[in-house]
Design a protein that fits this description.
By secondary structure, this protein is an alpha/beta fold. The protein is about 60% helix and about 10% strand. The chain has one domain: Rossmann fold.
Length: about 220
């Protein structure tokens, strides 16, 4: 059976990743393709526990401050489990894997935002993930101020509606997010064949069309 295809979505919270992943999955399934959708951190029993530690804004009230290196290590523990439990089996069965965040997020958030540097993140990726790289990365990168405004508004709505609070990162300063944004730009410039940035603040339908054009031009996995 031909190997599947591994697509990751990257960008700041509020960039529209979740919506576009859902739309792309539906379009691919309508073509008869097997699709597996997951997010990082999370998606496995271990990953969900790690997610609750890393994203819950109450974590540090009970655990104390999480050191940047510990944050990085937990992200990669989640990722290694996700690769072993979900990603590799799905690729082996010929599925298209759509992953909301991957190592580019660690390079941007921990490498850039926490200022651990890219070299340290990439070394951890090689060690923990056997250097498994996506076939294609869609980087949604609307203007920074727009992403931050959307993310903070969305998170307030989620807290009010669901009672869950995954706002630990959203409490960081605008300068923290500026470093993340700049690191994403750096990654896109370094790996232009894999990383396709979409910078427009366009409508959902317009962005969906742009993503479909990119994916359909890259995707070579046969339909089932």
């Amino acid at each position: 059976m031909p190997r599947g295809y591994f697509i990751t979505f990257e960008g700041l919270d509020g960039s529209g990743k979740t919506t576009q992943i859902r739309r792309l999955a539906a379009a691919l399934e309508a073509e008869g393709r097997r699709v597996v959708v997951l997010r990082q951190p999370g998606g496995t029993a271990l990953g969900n526990r790690i997610r609750s530690i890393l994203l819950d804004s109450k974590s540090e009230a009970t655990l104390g401050p999480i050191a940047p290196a510990a944050e990085m290590a937990l992200m990669f523990a989640d990722r290694a489990q996700s690769i072993a439990e979900i990603i590799l089996p799905a690729l082996e069965e010929g599925s298209v894997v759509l992953c909301d965040r991957y190592t580019d997020s660690s390079e941007a958030y921990q490498g850039g935002g926490r200022q651990l540097g890219s070299e340290r993140i990439l070394a951890m990726h090689a060690a923990a993930c056997d250097n498994l790289q996506p076939d294609l990365t869609i980087l949604l990168l609307p203007p920074l101020e727009i992403s931050l405004r959307r993310a903070r508004l969305r998170n307030r709505r989620v807290v009010q509606r669901q009672g869950t609070d995954e706002n630990r990162f959203e409490r960081e300063s605008d300068e923290f997010y500026r470093r993340i944004y700049e690191k994403y730009e750096e990654i896109a410039a370094r790996e232009p064949q894999r990383v396709i940035p979409i910078r427009d603040d366009a409508t959902l339908d317009e962005i969906q069309g742009c993503i479909w054009n990119v994916v359909s031009s890259h995707l070579t996995v046969p339909t089932v």
